[in-house]
Amino acid sequence: MYELQPVQPKRSRTNRNATAQPQNRFWQGFGMGVVAFVLLAALTIGGLLIGYAVMARDLPSPAELRQRASAFQSTRIYDREGNLLNETFDPNAGRRVEVPLRAISPYVIQATIATEDANFYNHPGIDPIALIRAVYYAFQEGDVVAGGSTITQQLVKRVLLSPERTVTRKIKEAILAAEITRRYNKDEILELYLNEVYYGNLAYGIDAAAETYFGKDAADLTLAEAALLAGLPQLPAYYDPYTHPDRAKNRQGVVLRLMVEAGYITPEEADAAWMEPLTYEPLRFELKAPHFTLYVRQQLEQIFGPEALYQAGYNVYTTLDPRLQAEAERIVREQVSLLADRNVSNGALVAMRPQTGEVVALVGSADFNDVEIDGQVNMALAPRQPGSATKPFVYLATFNLPDRPQEEQWTPGTLVADITTAFPDGANPPYVPRNYDGKEMGLITVRTALATSRNIPAVAALQEATLPVYLDLMRRFGITTLTRPDYGLSLSLGAGEIPLLELTDAYAALANGGQRIPPVTILKITDAQGSVICEQGTSRPCQPGVEAAQQVVSPVDAFLITDILSDNEARAPVFGLNSVLRLDRPAAAKTGTTNDFRDNLTVGYTPQLVTGVWVGNADNSPMLNISGVAGAGPIWNEFMRVAHAGEPALPFTPPPGVRQFEVCADTGTEPSDACPERRVHWFAEDRPPQPKEKDLWRRIRMVRGTDQLANEFTPPDQIEERVFKVYPLEHREWAIRHGIEQPPIEAVVAPPTPAPGELQLFISSPAEGATVRGVVPVFGSASMPGFASYELQYGITHDPGAFSLPFSGPFGAPVLNGQLGIWDTTGLGNGPHTLRLLMRASNGVQYETRVRVFVDNTPPTDTPTPTPTETSEPPTPTWTPEVPTPTDTPWPTDTPWPTDTPWPTDTPWPTDTPWPTDTPTPASEEPTFEPTPTWTPETNG
């Protein structure tokens, strides 16, 4: 049966077109995408092909490649007299005898392939998987950190490409390696590689390596020897068998295992090679002045770049003086050998001309070829702690305090305290430096403090100058290594590391009137044809910038430091008059020794030459009780004497702006009439010595036969003048403890009408100098006609600036030979105290007497023989007290206290320090040791 179908509405033309339009757009877009992709692919492939073609087009022929690998002209380095020091050969070509592949041991070929490129004979010059991995990590890390280089790629890097580590260079390396593989056969590539690769210790190529390490030709190498050499090129210094034999042996085992895995040898052969003992040739380089030569080579690479340096055939004329260099090497070697029993193995020396900066001698170690002492490490360039050798620059900073008036600038006569001091150190505990000898000199001048190398005053100087000012000064002197952010006051004692060359250059600036010229090592360079490329002293210097002298400090300040460092008399209390720092001519010098005796130095100069010497161990192991004056000092002394032989003895010329002043020797001021010893010293004209009113030496009127000051009430026949070195209040206690007698602070005067025998005022108990504790009864007498009252007081220290309120009294009844009162000391701190008995008369005149005692309330121990521990008991006083007796007649004191010689309150005390006049035992700046049998210094230091 016919079934009716619903009638579909007739589509309009418009609807049909609307349906077809999206389909057409899709196919149109798809087609355009395909076309764009094809075009992009074509462009990419075309670009790659063009780039490949461009790179491949620049490849030399096989003959040219071999010529480029071996073609170079040696750069020759000469001393200042034209003697050849060294031929600098291209590390990329090397001094080598090229050998054909057939003249190389098969073991070497097999070991090299197994280690460096196991698929060498099968790939097209690149290992795609390794290359993709290297590129991936390069993008991830921003640097080429993964390997992937085949033997062919390594050859490309050495011969055709610069050494930068970039993705572009890695891609170029792969393209060139593929093209070389297409053009050259594998044996040619391997032969070139084995003649190019660096095996360490200046051995370039397998034949040079065989000769250097084993003293034989490459053809004669055994399996064990070949396996060791094949493992070196990856990290020659790290696997160096001379310095790291264990690493080299382990690396040899890795190579043997790889050879077994590659099927070149059997496990049994690998075991036999592993067990074979290897004997190495002594490592010696044909280098004159080796450390200096290598230093110059580094500078030449910076000037010209390595490619030009090693291929252009330059002739380099250096500043080295061959006679001085030979003497320096001999003296360092001989003196270090004399100190072997002190665990000293190494030394270094730098000598420069101050006016030109020319380095005339440089010794980097006692023996360049001795691997036991790390002889190839240049200790003249290695940063080490200089100890006290930087103290001159600390004091120099105080001569140039920024934003301070002239009168606040320090001078050679400024007084500093060589007294134990706790210096604030920010959030850290206070810094309490000690002197090398553990002693203190009291108040001394800057001249004495620097010349005798005292530590405490140097720290005080740095605190005054501030760290930023000091660090800025050191940078201007050419010191580049003081860059840590956490330096403290210990930097004044040489806690920062500085290379010997930089420190010597800084001293050269002092010798050159405060003008610094950076070290100069190259005088002239010519090309292979003899044409001058550069020359010092012309418009084309070889080391740009080193000729322009920079005025680091004023000539005046540089001269003042030089004058101190050359003052043999000033340093004599520590070093003696005939120490190794003294020459037969004016010479400025300073020593330095670091903690645990790990480094010691001597740096010093004449107007003609500056020399710095370091002695120690390259591995930083400590020496045995040897200081800068005993270790480095003899080297400095002998070299300076040899270097100056036949030269005139020149003085240090004072610059304009300085003049000589007569000063009191140990206080640095204009001498008062009480000054016992005078000197004539140099000062800046605008910073003269302090006036005589500030001299610590004073003539003071005293009551004859007593320790009391006199005044207008004292009968003339009872007055005598005595000379005191009067310390400021803050240091009086120190002076008294060290036997430097001090006058009393307050004066007592005679009563207007005293009747002999009627006035009784004394303390009989406790006695002068007694030690008291707990509750102390005080006995004595306080009686006189017209008596009004008496009271007892105490003060802290033996020269208190003030006294307590009465702890007993006032009492209105006199006492004769009885108990005056009770003194409860239980709440007081341990240490020196002064007990004062004060009596008043009805007319208002008051009288006093004092007793100096020590309070010690330390609890007793439970055991009869306690273990020794630190206590707070002070040292025994060094004075001989005069204890008052009942027959003494104390003198009354008016208020205010009239005196003829008052304590100088109108003149501010200097913040510095003078020298005790008791002729203290000469201290040793550093631990003592008589250095050599060549002389006997008066004092050790």
Automatic annotation (TrEMBL):
Residues 85-259 form the Glycosyl transferase family domain. One of its GO terms (molecular function) is peptidoglycan glycosyltransferase activity. Residues 920-941 have a biased composition (Low complexity). Keywords: Carboxypeptidase, Cell membrane, Cell shape, Cell wall biogenesis/degradation, Glycosyltransferase, Hydrolase, Membrane, Multifunctional enzyme, Peptidoglycan synthesis, Protease, Transferase, Transmembrane, Transmembrane helix. Its main location: membrane. The chain crosses the membrane at residues 30-55. The keyword Cell wall biogenesis/degradation applies. It is found in: Cell membrane. It comes from the Bacteria. It catalyses: Preferential cleavage: (Ac)2-L-Lys-D-Ala-|-D-Ala. Also transpeptidation of peptidyl-alanyl moieties that are N-acyl substituents of D-alanine; [GlcNAc-(1->4)-Mur2Ac(oyl-L-Ala-gamma-D-Glu-L-Lys-D-Ala-D-Ala)](n)-di-trans,octa-cis-undecaprenyl diphosphate + beta-D-GlcNAc-(1->4)-Mur2Ac(oyl-L-Ala-gamma-D-Glu-L-Lys-D-Ala-D-Ala)-di-trans,octa-cis-undecaprenyl diphosphate = [GlcNAc-(1->4)-Mur2Ac(oyl-L-Ala-gamma-D-Glu-L-Lys-D-Ala-D-Ala)](n+1)-di-trans,octa-cis-undecaprenyl diphosphate + di-trans,octa-cis-undecaprenyl diphosphate + H(+). Residues 874-919 have a biased composition (Pro residues). One of its GO terms (cellular component) is outer membrane-bounded periplasmic space. GO terms for biological process: cell wall organization; peptidoglycan biosynthetic process; proteolysis; regulation of cell shape. Residues 347-608 form the Penicillin-binding protein transpeptidase domain. Residues 1-20, 855-941 are annotated as: Disordered. In the N-terminal section; belongs to the glycosyltransferase 51 family. In the C-terminal section; belongs to the transpeptidase family. This is Penicillin-binding protein 1C.
